[in-house]
Inverse folding.
């Protein structure tokens, strides 16, 4: 069993990570660092600390999960590696490729695992899209389009999220997820183009983006905005044999906020109304119908992290892959 310390108890720490550590028997959620909330209300057995330094002084801590504000990720991860702790970093990994490369090398020197919380590799919708592509149901894929939109015209009450710095903004927030998904599916693109915009009144950060990744015959479009009130398709795929369109988003975050834990039967299962629509040829027969969405399971990331740390499996979310994501985001920022 690995002893875990969680740095931060906001959305990610409280809802997206702590429940998975608490239900997985390979982890002991030993410590949570929080200065503004009482984690014991939700996880009564944890020890509450006030600083990262207290955690680093605890020799019993094996893994530190960093869920603190984006601008702290590089500094905190570096301190954890120097203290000989394994590290899980909430996205974005770092603000720059240079910082990411330094952490990757430091982890190798220290003989420690460092990974990034790219949990949306294990979303129900993305895993379904991935299977549709891998099973060749659309033939040769020609167009892959993803929208990660929300309607949040009011500025975030958390001031740090609205502060203009290198690691903030929608590109590093939501963009890091769908760029990562594209890299998982297709690798590093041949060409990159993109732009970010500021659309909300009073905003200091980018809150919209339009990205194009060129993979030769395959063209990838990734878009996001915080001012989309009417939901459109989340995934739109066109291939030489057919098309696949998917509405709706993975329900794990909503389930966790509602108190549905990862070890409950209903967790991660989307409603049938969110099933994707496919129109294609299968074994010479034309078929148009729905495809049931696979069950979402962010727990896969946590179990794999345990197995990677204990030498039982290869790490799924490799920092080298996320380094490519950071390079793409830096390139878009330069346009």
């Amino acid at each position: 069993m690995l002893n875990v310390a969680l740095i931060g108890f906001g959305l990610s720490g409280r809802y997206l990570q702590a429940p998975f550590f608490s239900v997985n028997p390979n982890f002991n959620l030993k410590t949570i660092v929080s200065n503004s909330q009482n984690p014991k209300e939700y996880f009564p057995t944890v020890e509450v600390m006030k600083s990262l330094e207290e955690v680093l002084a605890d020799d019993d801590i094996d893994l530190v999960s960093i869920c603190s504000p984006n601008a702290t990720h590089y500094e905190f991860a570096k301190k954890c590696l120097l203290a000989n702790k394994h590290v899980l970093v909430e996205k974005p990994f770092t603000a720059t490729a240079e910082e990411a490369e330094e952490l990757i090398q430091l982890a190798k020197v220290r003989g420690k695992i460092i990974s990034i919380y790219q949990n949306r590799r294990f979303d129900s919708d993305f895993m379904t899209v991935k299977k549709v592509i891998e099973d060749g149901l659309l033939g040769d894929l020609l167009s892959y389009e993803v929208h990660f939109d929300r309607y949040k015209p009011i500025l975030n009450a958390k001031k740090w999220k609205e502060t203009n710095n290198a690691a903030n903004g929608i590109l590093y927030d939501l963009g890091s997820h769908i760029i990562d998904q594209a890299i998982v599916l297709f690798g590093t693109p041949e060409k990159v183009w993109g732009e970010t915009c500021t659309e909300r009144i009073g905003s200091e950060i980018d809150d919209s983006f339009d990205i194009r990744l060129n993979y030769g015959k395959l063209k990838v479009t990734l878009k996001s905005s915080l001012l989309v009130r009417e939901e459109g398709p989340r995934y739109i795929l066109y291939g030489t044999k057919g098309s696949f369109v998917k509405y709706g988003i993975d329900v794990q975050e909503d389930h966790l906020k509602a108190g549905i834990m990862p070890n409950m039967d209903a967790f991660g299962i989307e409603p049938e109304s969110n099933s994707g629509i496919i129109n294609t040829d299968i074994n010479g027969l034309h078929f148009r119908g729905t495809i049931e969405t696979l069950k979402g399971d962010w727990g896969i990331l946590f179990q794999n992290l345990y197995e990677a740390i204990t030498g039982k499996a290869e790490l799924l979310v490799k920092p080298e892959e996320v380094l490519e994501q950071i390079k793409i985001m830096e390139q878009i920022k330069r346009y």
Remarks:
- The radius of gyration is 20 Å.
